[in-house]
Each structure stands twice: as structure tokens, then as C-alpha cells.
Amino acid sequence: MGSLPLPDFLSKRLFSSTPQKKSLNINNINQNVVHAQYAVRGELAIKSEQYRAQLAKGEGKDLPFDSVISANIGNPQQLDQKPLTFFRQVASLLENPELLEHEQILLDKLGYKSDVVERARRLLKDVKSVGAYSQSQGAPGIRQSVADFIERRDGYSSDPANIYLCAGASSGVNALMNVICSTPQTGVLVPIPQYPLYSATLRLMNAHMVPYYLKEDANWATDVGGMRDALKEAQGKGIDVRAVVVINPGNPTGGSLKPEDINAVLELAAEEKLAVLADEVYQMNVFEGEFQSFKKGLRDLQKSEKNKDGKFDEMELASMHSISKGMVGECGHRGGYYEMVGFDPEVVAQIYKFVSIMLCAPVIGQCLVDCMVNPPRPNDPSYPLYKSEYDGIFNGLRQRADALYEAFSQMDGVSCQSPQGSMYLFPTITLPEKAVAAAKEEGKKPDEFYCLRLLDATGVCIVPGSGFGQKEGTLHFRTTFLAPGTEWVGRITKFHQEFMDQYR
Fold first, then answer.
1. pLDDT digits (tens, 9 = 90+) for 118-130
2. pTM, full prediction
3. Longest dimension (CA), the chain
4. Cα separation of 318 and 256, whole Å?
């Protein structure tokens, strides 16, 4: 099958010989933007959307598939995950408060429950209108809800003054990185494989990503020894390493850290005076064991014998969460928060200034954060439906994760860690030498070659491991397990067998 044409903006940039007549051109704009990469929305995603457009226009009769499966990005509602009713009913009243003047109709005719109405009234009292700016840090009442949630989750108090509401966790990462990265010699330790938000953001900051490798054979656990080696090597090159990123549960790996792993990272960070950035947006998606936050790990250590010299007392920790993942899946509403503990007040003031320049996070997203951290509870009128919807989504994710895992376990040359959490699997793939040579002929990395062939043959879009980073000499790909049903899993296994037979 021939290649699809590149988007106009790419083809013009790559192939135009016309003299530049504009003030801006590809050579004089910010080169940090030019060189930043974001694999989950890269070449494969662009090509899959072109296929999707062809099928929508009825022009895909020659394609060997009748639908595109976007397994490249954690975008639950694009893949038919239904919104939680409580969240959307509250949002509808916030967007159109006049509906509250007809409360009995809402309750008697439209299926709203009294706790939905109460939540909407409380949130409107806090924000006044979702069309108005909130405080830069976020609406006070919602920050209090977040602090209460953290206290219930961890068993330790949380101060709403330390909570910042943001437009998804990525916005929080951007704010923190902008403040942390002061010179081109600033470095941040980032796990490999990593979610490319971190490498791309550091590239935009003109700062150094210092990679440390996770242990695949231990369900993608952290390797503190390897982390320390990476830190010392970077410092030996004159890089000022100031922070360490940890993604738990993992993206793209799907791993879930044990408390001892969390403690080991915190101990290293305390010894080396590193701020810890804990990306915990998948904390609802844990299939094996239970989620433990870095905040709880830190507070436990601060109370333990290990802190008799006070080495954990001054630790800086920023923990992030989001409405985009879990069973909520409200990616498009752009809501999240980060909690900062142990930061110097003067640094906090600068972070506040930075977020003030951005004005505030979307207020409707802030309100959905409130619903996430304070959902219906037993005995609330909305609880039975909420519980049914929540469990249905969670169990569906688990079933599809298991189906994919079983399929990968039976595929020639593929090995995969069991699904522990998040929305992803990140299997290792061993390709025949002929396939590696064919990839080289096309100017592609072997895992990119495989993923492109899979897309062309099946309409299933996944992301090559090279987009996330991987140990030299290994190949992987990342797939979500969000798409409904399991038919598309069969597409992958059929393609894989034919691909391996072709290049064996």
C-alpha cells in the first residue's frame, strides 16, 4: 500500500524551494519548539486520522479495515467510554444555572438527584459563574475539597494553600518546569520509558533530560542504583540536576510502584537534595495491590526512625492528579491539581506569579475536579448509579487489559509484563533481521516500521517504544486498552503472525 500524503504544513516545510517572503520561517523561529517531539500525536497519529477521514467520507473501500482504533493515546471518551452521569449532570447545571429554578422538573422528570442539585449550588456559590475567572490558584472551596480528599486518602493533613488547580496535569508540569529550569545546564531525572510530555517540556525549556531506566523484568520498578548512576554521570558533565520525575502508576509501562520503591526514591532525593515531581494521574487505575502516594510515603518517612537526623524534613514534593484519566476520562475539560509540600515560600510565590500570568485553569474543569475528589458516597441518592458506572468502566478496562496481555503472551517474539495499572501495556518485541533491514531501507526505526505496517494493515494505531525511550538494543510499543470490545485485539495478532512470516 502506498504512503498517504503528508499534511500540507509538513509538505510545504519539507519540500518547498520558494524563497521565504515571511518574517517567520522554520530557521528563525524557536528551535526548541522545532526539535521537541511528542510521539503520541506524531506521524502515526496523523496518518490514522487521515484514514479515519477517508472512511468517514466513504472513500476507504480499498482499505483492508473498516474502522480506525486509536490505541495511541489515553483519550477515554474518544474510544466510547461514557461520561459519569453525576459529573455531567453537575456540569450541565453549572453551565446553565437557570435550570436550578426548575428543581422539581429536574428531580421528577429528568433523572437528576438531589445531591446533584446540592453540589451545583455549592459550586456556584464558590465560583459564581463558570464563565468567570477564578483565583489564579483555583477556587478556594474546590481546593479545600482536594485537601480533604488527600487527607482521606493518605491519613495526613493537607493544606488547601498548597493546592494549585490546573488545566490538566500537563499544565502543572509546565508551570513547575518553567520555574525549576533556570539555565541550559539545569537537569531533571526522568524515567525511561517516559511519557514524552517530560522530554518535550524540557526541550522547550532548553534544559537537560537526565534519563534513568526502569527495570522491565521487575514490572517496571524503579532502579535507585541506576538512578544514582545517571545522576552522578550528569553531574560529572556539569549538569545541575534539581528534580526527579516519577510516574506512578506508569505511563507508558503500566507498572505500579510498591511502597518500598517509593521510599527508596524519596531517600535518594533527600540525600541528593532533589525535588520530587510525582505524576500520579493514574492512581484510580490500579489492578494489582493498592495505590500509595508519594505524599504518604514522605509523611511516613518523616515520622520514622530514618528521620532522626531530620533529613526528610526539608524535602520538596509536588504531586499531580487529573480528571483526564481513571474512570472519569474528562480529558477535554482540562482539569487537575498539584499539591506542593516543603517548597521555599519565595519559590512558591514565583510559581503563584507564573500561574497568575496564565490567569486560571478552566473553571468548569475545576468543578469537575471537585466531583472527582468528592464523588457520591454510600447513602447519597446518586451513589448507586455512580458506583455501577464506575465499576463497569474499571472492570471493562481490566478485562481488555487481560485480553491484550493474553494475546501478547501468545505472539511470537513478544513478551509483556502483566497489567498492574494505568491504561497501557508496553510489550517488548523481537523482530526478524529481515524486518530490521527493511525498516532501515525505508529510513525508519524498526519499531516505527512495525507500527506503521500494523496501522496500514489493520487500522490499529499504536506508538513505537522509541517515542518513549527504551534501552539500547530493545524494541517496544505502547498500546492503550481503552477501545471497546476485543475484536481489534484479533486484528493485531493476525497481522503480527503474517508480518513475522513475511520477514522470517
1. 999 999 999 999 9
2. 0.86
3. 71
4. 19
